[in-house]
Amino acid sequence: MHCFVSPTVSYVHQLQADNVAENACGSDNGGCSHLCLRNPSGYSCACPTGTVLREDGETCNTPPSTYLLFATRSTLARVSLDTPELWDVTLPIPDVRNAIAVDFHWAKQKIYYTDESKCPVIVSFRSVDMHNLSNTYTLISTNLTTPDGLAVDWIADNIYWTDAARKLLEVARLDGSCRKVVIKDGLDEPRALAIFPRKGYLYWTDWGDNPKIERSLLDGSARRTVVGTDLGFPNGLALDYGARRLYWADALRDRIETSDLHGKNRVHLVPEATHPFGLTQYGDHIYWTDWYKKSVERADKTTGKDRIVIRTDLDGVMEIRAVAAGRQAGWTPCAVNNGGCSHLCMFQQQTYDCTCPDVPDDRPCSTGRYKLCITQVVPTKH
Fold this sequence. Notes:
mainly beta; Laminin; Neuraminidase; 31 strands; signal
């Protein structure tokens, strides 16, 4: 953890020292988890930029409880929403070469990202521990070309991605096992992904010759076009789970739009977004990255007004996510013992499926469709 201290830090825990000439911080860092700072009357515990002290006055809340996570190709960075400064901090994650897409799993305290190095050509999915940023893990590193979209199903513990070059939408378990193609037909240039696990919905953008935003159930069934007109390059995609709204960024039309979950009640929310790429929503705001301005920006999610630039001079800024516990709520039967499934559990609103990976492993695979009224799941094996 890099301990950058804001000039506006409020030192919540200040201890008196009878003899300030002594090294009050020398013994066990004064009891402080991060920074121990001497002052004329004793010493104070302080925290890195964007984090705050807990009620014990000694321990910093790291990582922040709420923050923006974004990729800038060679790095991942965050902007804490816990404090008013909105400063960005580069995360010391090793060997990031060309990060594009990002997402997270709050319960597991993991960050997931795609890394698409061109020289040498190394394409992979990686995870990193939020509390130990040197602890990285490669989930998948084969049969990937341009995985520019990524979405974590935090209830079923599955991860979805798009691959524009291979024209596929795939899924796997969070450790990279049980890989399966969800959609392979009728995709041109699939890009961004957004998932609503509790509703069983998967959304994605396609910025090919016939740009559109599509939706399916989590297994790829019940596929339909949600928005199919007046689109250019639909890039970023975000969901407001509480308000039941869909947001997208269009890099050709230079605007951000919103609709309901079915593509109705469409509104031009931010009509002059220069070249938006990534998009996310949290609280009363939407946040997006802009390629031309090299920035992260914010606006009111309902009116598009009160627009501010949070950070600039971000070369190669790509996808963005709002990381918070409140973004990943809800329950489905897949949350309990993987729904009784041996491999993949996929929720479909009134039912859920146990399904198998495309390439069998050494375990018997359970399959079947189950209604929510079933209290005990005993899948069949073959």
